[in-house]
Structures are given as structure tokens and as C-alpha cells.
From TrEMBL:
InterPro entries linked: Restrct_endonuc-II-like
Gene3D superfamilies tied to this protein: VSR Endonuclease
Name this protein carries in UniProt: DUF559 domain-containing protein
Domain of life where this protein originates: Bacteria
Length: 224
């Protein structure tokens, strides 16, 4: 099983990839993954009660931690890595594919990552051909015209400590611009530290800053 040898971050990326927003690529749901782990735990418990010497599969605890950090509805693995990079420095988990309506459009635009409470979006930009670049430029203009602060992320921002810390600081600076309040980052944490359930249930940043959210947050209950 992958959990036996994958690093925790890679396991989160794998879980996200199995729960894509595109229905053609979606293979499971958070509830199904949680049920699988619950069933495995219940089976081992029943076996032990009957006298059998059985144990949970290798990587079980890692799967539990990965499930706390996984999110359904992503579009790419780099979006997942961007989200995890922000968590490493103590920022709240951004919303995934947050829907907004811009202009006279009747269909929503889905922001890669968003802090709707601050109207800040983080968009991952891959390598595109010229036509796609023009579409992305138009999309950015519409998002900014709707009053959102736009942070562009590329592969140069993800994958090393310096780039990821700089990205987290950019996000913190935008939050400070919106709220007028200082946002303190933490030192870089491991993904295991980030997956601590107590940290994931902490008071949201906007409440700690004592500001009113600009837009509603879609509630997500971490699954253990």
C-alpha cells in the first residue's frame, strides 16, 4: 500500500488527486476514505477481541494524518503543494476552488485557493501556450475588478524553503493590507506538525485579528 513508503506530503497529494473537481478524474470522497480507515480499525479491534494477533496496516496513522489535510475538489497537485506550503508557516488553510461570480456572468469562476474572509486569492500558473496565457490574463483582470487581491504562484515558488517562505510572507502582507493588522508567521513546520488536529481546529485568523469576514467561508470539518 502506498502509505507504507510515501512521505506524508506525498500521501496528501495522492489523496487530493483521487478527489478531483473534474468528475472524470474523481475516484473517491473524503467520507469514503474515512470509512475505509474506520473499517480497518474496527476489523483489527474485532480480531483482537477474538484472540487474533493482528495489527493495522503499515502507514495507517499516516493515512489518518493525510486525511486531515486532504481536500476534495482540487484541480492539480501543485495547488495541493501550494496549500501545504502556506500551512507550514502557520497560515489558515485556504478554501479550495472557491466559487465567485464576476461581471454579468451566470456561471462561477472557481479560484484555485482563496481566503474569502479577506478577499485574497492564490492562483497557480503552470506552463501555458499563448492562448491560455491570454485567457489567464483576462481571468485575473475579472477577479481583480471584483475586488480581490490576486497572488500568482508558479513552480519557482514551490519546492524549496526560501520560495515557500517568501510566498507565505506575500500572503501575510496582503492580509495585513486588507485588515491593517499584523500577521505573524511561524517558523517552518513539518507536514506532520501541520497535521496536528488541534492546530487544524484553532480559532480562524480573522477572529484572532478581530475583523469581520468580507465573504463567507465554506465550512470544512477535518476527518480523522
Amino acid at each position: 500500500m502506498f502509505s507504507a513508503y510515501l512521505e506524508l506530503e506525498e500521501l496528501v497529494v495522492l489523496a487530493d488527486s483521487a478527489m478531483r473537481r473534474d468528475r472524470r478524474s474523481c475516484r473517491t470522497t473524503p467520507d469514503n476514505l474515512s470509512l475505509y480507515l474506520d473499517t480497518a480499525e474496527a476489523q483489527v479491534r474485532a480480531d483482537k477481541e477474538s484472540g487474533a494477533n493482528t495489527n493495522l496496516f503499515r502507514g495507517y496513522e499516516k493515512c489518518r494524518r493525510a486525511l486531515l489535510l486532504a481536500r476534495a475538489g482540487t484541480d492539480s497537485s501543485m495547488e495541493t503543494r501550494t496549500r501545504l506550503a502556506l500551512l507550514r508557516y502557520g497560515l489558515d488553510c485556504p478554501q479550495v476552488n472557491y466559487p465567485i461570480f464576476v461581471g454579468n456572468g451566470t456561471r462561477p469562476i472557481h479560484l484555485d485557493l482563496a481566503y474569502p474572509e479577506f478577499k485574497i486569492c492564490i492562483e497557480y500558473e503552470g506552463s501555458h501556450h499563448a492562448g491560455q496565457w491570454l485567457n489567464d490574463a483576462r481571468r485575473r483582470q475579472m477577479i481583480e475588478d471584483a475586488g480581490w487581491k490576486y497572488i500568482q504562484v508558479t513552480k519557482l515558488d514551490i519546492g524549496d524553503e526560501a520560495g515557500e517562505e517568501a510566498l507565505a510572507r506575500r500572503v501575510a502582507e496582503r492580509i495585513q493590507e486588507v485588515t491593517g493588522k499584523t500577521v505573524q508567521l511561524t517558523t517552518r513546520q513539518t507536514i506532520r506538525q501541520v497535521s496536528d488536529a488541534r492546530k487544524l481546529r484553532r480559532i480562524p485568523l480573522y477572529k484572532r485579528l478581530n475583523v469581520e469576514p468580507l465573504l463567507p467561508i465554506i465550512p470544512i470539518t477535518p476527518r480523522e
